[in-house]
Design goal:
Length: about 230
């Protein structure tokens, strides 16, 4: 297979999370009744946040809070809180992720970064890491009709980067939502990585084609799968 595109998730896959999503979420819901830190409502909500990692954050707040104005306000607070953490230097790449991305580019793949964060949050992370010129495309839920677990971001990357066959796409993420998104898009490789919250059992249940210790293993996997000359 002539691999053309790698769609890589950000937090937990190429970017270390270190619990930042949960910290920002805690700030975001602090103003909401019934979500005081340590309360039963908060504990139920944080479990839901963990279960829906990788999905559009505004959709998560809509599911938790119901009313659109409350969800929008909480999402805005989340973005501000996460951006504050980014500016404070708490966002770092997964060890070796940048080298892995460069290795994928050397193999001829275009690189798209995808996320469940809003555009402002994604941009803040890219700027903090200096990754603007490292990748070909960065997509967030507002760029497409639907975020993960739907295939829209992967398919948007296919169209924008001129990929000729969805089977030549590699999708990598740290949550079942990433796996569902890649499978629904028809990607040839849909791999889970163990640098986030999900484990081998979760990825197997979601239907991942491969499970990697980290994104660092992806270039080696593609090299091993390359056809050998006769």
């Amino acid at each position: 297979m002539n691999w053309q595109l790698a769609c890589l998730d950000m937090a937990g896959t190429t970017v270390r999370d270190e619990g930042l999503v949960e910290k920002a979420f805690t700030v975001a819901v602090a103003a909401e009744d019934g979500f005081t830190l340590g309360s039963a409502g908060y504990e139920r909500a944080i479990r839901f946040v963990r279960e829906t990692m990788g999905q559009s954050k505004i959709e998560v707040f809509r599911a938790l809070l119901g009313e659109e104005h409350r969800a929008a306000a909480a999402n805005a607070r989340f973005e501000v809180a996460y951006a504050d953490l980014v500016r404070a230097g708490h966002v770092q790449p997964i060890a070796g992720a940048e080298s892995a991305i460069r290795a994928l580019r050397s193999l001829g793949l275009s690189i798209a970064l995808t996320t469940g964060f809003a555009r402002a949050t994604q941009d803040a992370i890219l700027d903090a890491l200096g990754w603007r010129n490292l990748v070909d495309l960065a997509l967030c839920p507002s760029d497409v009709p639907r975020g993960r677990p739907y295939p829209d971001m992967v398919l948007a990357a296919v169209l924008r980067l001129g990929v000729t066959d969805v089977r030549s796409v590699v999708v990598v993420g740290d949550t079942p939502s990433d796996i569902y998104s890649g499978l629904r898009a028809g990607a040839g490789i849909v791999a889970g990585v163990l640098t986030g919250l999900s484990d081998l059992e979760a990825f197997s249940a979601a239907g991942a084609t491969h499970v990697l210790t980290s994104v660092n293993e992806l270039p080696g996997l593609l090299r091993a799968m390359a056809p050998r000359a006769a």
